UniProtKB/TrEMBL annotation:
Source organism of the structure: Candidatus Methanoperedens nitratireducens
Protein name: Exosome complex component Csl4
Ranges of residues in domain S1 motif: 94-172
Keyword rRNA processing assigned: no
Acidic residues bias spans: 8-23
Localization in the cell: Cytoplasm
Role, per record: Non-catalytic component of the exosome, which is a complex involved in RNA degradation. Increases the RNA binding and the efficiency of RNA degradation. Helpful for the interaction of the exosome with A-poor RNAs.
Binding site for Zn(2+): 181, 184, 197, 200
Amino acid sequence: MEEKELEEREEELQVEEEIEQPEEGTVKEEPADNKIVLPGDLIGTSEEFTPKEGTFVDKGNIYAATTGIVKVNSKERSISVIPVTNVPPHLQVGDIVIGQITDVKDSVALVEIASIKDKGEREIINVDQAAIHVSNVKDAYVKELSAEFEPFDIVKAKVIDMRNMRLSTVNKELGVMKAYCSSCRTVMKKENGRLKCPKCNRVETRKLSSDYGTGVI
């Protein structure tokens, strides 16, 4: 009887181990404390992780490309940012959007829109690359657009034209929310209306949002 009971117990333990194992071909994803991040937030390095959905890489650092929750795949050593809603929003004139400057030309700054204020953070389904024309930057003459925006900057802007995908940063709450030093890519600190790099002490200017550095959308 004792041998039979031992055999039955071994079978029970084997069944419990099989239940605890994940299905073949699946990988358990572990959130990094379910941390919610904004576009441009540093979430890791390419030495630590392989960047996946919702991220971009610059100089070996991995940043969030959208607002969402950080997810780490411990088996693949990959990292991604998962949008926090399931319904893809539609972009409309008058919407306030968050995006990243991808290029600055003589008369326009190109923007990749990441999310719409108050409409969730899923990938937007009806948007191409947008642009901020030099005439829609602020209520003042703009001599050089590069003094207002730089690539990788995170901006808050208003949609004013859907046909040509035009944005505006004229109001005080609109403009650059987070700026990166054009030399060393460190996040710049606001000092007396200008921006100073805490790493290399470079001073730069931007068309700043009144919410710069607050994380408030």
